[in-house]
Amino acid sequence: MEENLEEEVINGPQPEQPAEPTEVEKALALAEDFKRKWYTVSAEYDNYRKRNAQAVSKAYADGVSDAILKLLPVADTFGYALDSASDEKTRAGIDKVIKNFNTILASLGVEEIEVNIGDPFDESVASAVINFPCEEGEAPNTVKQVLKKGYRNSERVIRFAQVAVTI
């Protein structure tokens, strides 16, 4: 015993050897590890599902926008035909087609961007394709003529209005 005391004084107190964990403690530790891993995998899957839903939604919106963008020249052509129609029956028929087309666009959440002659030019919804010098009484940087209508789907511009602007 004196040897043990001398050894403790020289080497310091020896830590007690931990007891071997029991089978129950091992099983509890393993269960806790599996539980932690399950929470991690569950959270990763939930994030994956949310990202995937956002990607699908964006792809659908992009597809709708692309299809509408390809159909807008048809609407423009009907507008030109309405402007050049001479008899009333032709004008009425073309007007019905335009109204039906606009109803379909509205059902898809697409609306026309309001750009009027005399409005200040807004580059967030319109594109200036022609510049005219200011005439008497006109302010610079105003819309002089609307060449093509613009359209938006919610907050996203599908096609910018094409306008002539005073400089």
Mind explaining what this structure looks like?
The model has no long low-confidence stretch (mean pLDDT 89). This protein has three helices and six strands; from the N terminus they run H-H-H-E-E-E-E-E-E. It is 55% helix and 19% strand. It is elongated. The longest helix is centred in the N-terminal third of the chain and has 62 residues, at 23-84. It folds into two domains: 23-108, GrpE nucleotide exchange factor, coiled-coil domain (Hemagglutinin Ectodomain, Chain B, Alpha-Beta Complex), CATH 3.90.20.20; 110-167, Head domain of nucleotide exchange factor GrpE (Nucleotide Exchange Factor Grpe, Chain A, domain 2, Roll), CATH 2.30.22.10. By secondary structure, it is α+β, with helices and mostly antiparallel strands.
